[in-house]
Amino acid sequence: MQKKFPDGFYWGAATASYQVEGGIENNDWAKSALEGYVPTCGLACDHFNRYEEDFDLAKELGHNAHRFSIEWARIEPEEGKFDQEAIEHYRRVLMALRDRGITPFVTIWHWTLPIWFVEKGGWVSKDAEGHFLRYVSLLTNEYEDLVKFWVVYNEPETPVRHGYVIGDRPPHHKLRIFTALKVIKKIAKVYKKTYQVIKNIDPEAQVGFSESLVYFEPYENTLVNRLAVKIIKWWRNNPEYDVYASNCDFIGLQYYFHTRVRINLFKSKWGIQFNDNERVSDFGWEIFPEGIYHILLSLKKYKKPIYITENGLADADDKYRSDFIREHLIWCHKAFEDGVDLRGYLHWSLMDNYEWTRGFEMRFGLIKVDYETLERKIRPSAYVYKEICETNVVVE
Ligand code: FCB
């Protein structure tokens, strides 16, 4: 059966500056790599120099939208000093997309921060808001003519959870739960102001955010499990989610995870995650397409347009990717039929890239990258997706 998406639907893929560009040495992740905490990123895909070639491939693959992020450390390498060459670079990137008829979704902060900013205390510092808003004003003024969709933050709670509680990402603090909650709140407050700053400069801009939402279910439907789901969901799906979803022109949804929660000390198997599903990605993440439907329905109450700003899997052999995309889109279409205002799907990722603490091992790309030669090779699943992008139809 053919499932048709609405006219004007955005189809494409996403990337993030640090993960693909290469040559970024002045952000907190590069510093952490030097200190031996996380893998080195180095040249990555050299997308910084090869963006035109990469956008040619996106066009060939039928994409009409592309999400990418601007690297703050390039634009503002020193506090208050903007780099004109970097500003021009991203203008050229935006023009390259425009020339190919591809609509940009521009992420302003995709986790990496300039070293000068973190040395001043990062988000904890009292000046953080002023610094961020100055950077945002600059971007909006510079690119107003080329950008309609601004994604202010990518998953704002993730770097805080990992950076202040788990400790595996910068700034590598552990178990600072109260600080983490404070930072999560502060970042949300800055978001609200950012929304206004962008709208004041460009009232036509569409301003939103991206958050990864986990589809939680109780393993058995008991009161204890249901309660546990509530608490875990509150923490994991961003305690400030309502602030974002109530102050935006669109919601960006990233869907990767399904988690079953079981609190039963008398069972030998208890905890917060069970993989009953045989199909898992190279990362070990369960493939559970139905979850995207439930999450989409849960967002209906905000009455905002929704874009899937990320959804994808690590699959070096391209074994599951075609089915993964098709099945998720069938569930997306069902959500659309059930009244969800879904307007676009951006797959993670256009090409293989630096997967944060896992380095280059996990391969999320529609396009395979050979890190020795930097040669790009389109994976078969990308052609399956191309057909969907070009026809606006997914076949069940
Ligand atoms: C998301 C991140 C993105 C990428 C994917 C796999 O949480 O936003 O950069 O790492 O996961």
Sequence-ordered SSE layout with sheet pairings:
Elements lengths: L1 E3 L5 E5 L2 H4 L7 H7 L12 H14 L4 E5 L2 H4 L8 H16 L3 E7 L5 H5 L8 H16 L5 E6 L2 H10 L10 H25 L4 E7 L2 E4 L4 H14 L4 H6 L3 E5 L3 E4 L28 H10 L6 E5 L10 H17 L4 E7 L18 E3 L6 E3 L1 H12 L1 E3 L1
Parallel strand pairs: 2-3, 2-11, 3-4, 4-5, 5-6, 6-8, 7-9, 8-10, 10-11
Antiparallel strand pairs: 1-14, 12-13
Helix pairs in contact: 7-9, 8-9, 12-13, 13-14
The structure holds beta-D-fucopyranose.
Question: Any overview of this molecule?
Answer:
The protein is of the alpha/beta class and 396 residues long. It has a single domain, classed as Glycosidases (TIM Barrel, Alpha-Beta Barrel), CATH 3.20.20.80. Helix content is 40%, strand content 17%. The strands form 4 sheets. Strands 2-3-4-5-6-8-10-11 form an 8-stranded parallel barrel. The chain has a two-stranded antiparallel ribbon with strand order 1-14. Strands 7-9 form a two-stranded parallel ribbon. Helix 8 runs antiparallel to helix 9 (177-201) and helix 13 (321-337) runs parallel beside helix 14 (380-391).
Number of distinct beta strands? 14
Order of SSEs, N→C? EEHHHEHHEHHEHHEEHHEEHEHEEEHE
Task: Name the average pLDDT.
Answer: 96
- How many domains would you count in the coordinates? 1
Distance between the termini: 5 Å
What's the helical proportion of residues?
40-55%
Report the sheet-strand fraction: 15-25%
CATH homologous superfamily (4th level) name = Glycosidases
Shape call? globular
In this entry the ligands are: beta-D-fucopyranose
Largest sheet, described in full?
8 strands, parallel, barrel
By DSSP (H or I, 4+ residues per run), the number of helices equals 14
The low-confidence parts are none
What's the multimeric state? single chain
